[in-house]
Amino acid sequence: MIDLADRARAAVTERVELPGMSLLEHLQELRKRIIHSALYLLGGFFIAWGFHDKIYGFMEKPVKLALAHHHMPTQLNYLNPVDGFNMYLEISFMAGCILASPFVLYQVWLFISPGLYRNERRFVTPFMIATVGLFLAGAFFGYHWVFPGALDFLFTFNKDFNPLIEINEYTSLFLTVILGLGATFELPILIMFLSLFGIVSPRFLWKNIRYAVLLIFIVACIIAPTPDVLTMCVFAAPMLGLYLVSIGVSYMVHPVTRKRRKEKAAR
Question: What are the start-end ranges of the E strands in the chain?
Fold first, then answer.
């Protein structure tokens, strides 16, 4: 009886913790979080701009190594006088977004946290670490293995031609691969939120794994820099592993979702 009373008291306490907000209050809170996020992004951009030459050196290192390995000229080219400036703006903005991402994610968490119970809010630290960590892991995987391997394949395939690599085209290719892999590594976080809000369940994810595999290979085909099957499989393999991890994440989150549904039904 005491145990039941304690559980009931805890449930009431958690319900009280959820503040009721009007539509106007939600919009004001959203506006506040968007403004804060924009300021963080602006600050990240200016910090990254101060190191734009080092960022570019980091970005061009894979192609220079690949060109040197194939005994080709390593100097990149531009077609328009403003190309270099635009390229520096683009990479500074992307680097600024990465620098500001933990603070922006915290603003997202502050916006959704009033709708969560006290025991669910403790996930903020794992959420922040996992989100940033998974993105960096994907970017690291792309920078050190996938992108150099793709460049080596492309230069080997085009060995009979003289390379004239334009800086904006190269930047676009680099960002597509690195940011694409970083984003795909966020799959467990996406599944966690979908499971938390009851949109998917571990059973649903496992039952539809064949469709997930098909979708993963379609995504890999889109973001892969080369059309060969090997590169597509290199992209798809970590995504398949992450999908299996996501099923485990959904399994851990599912009891929380079930509890929320039961409490809503009991009201």
Answer: none
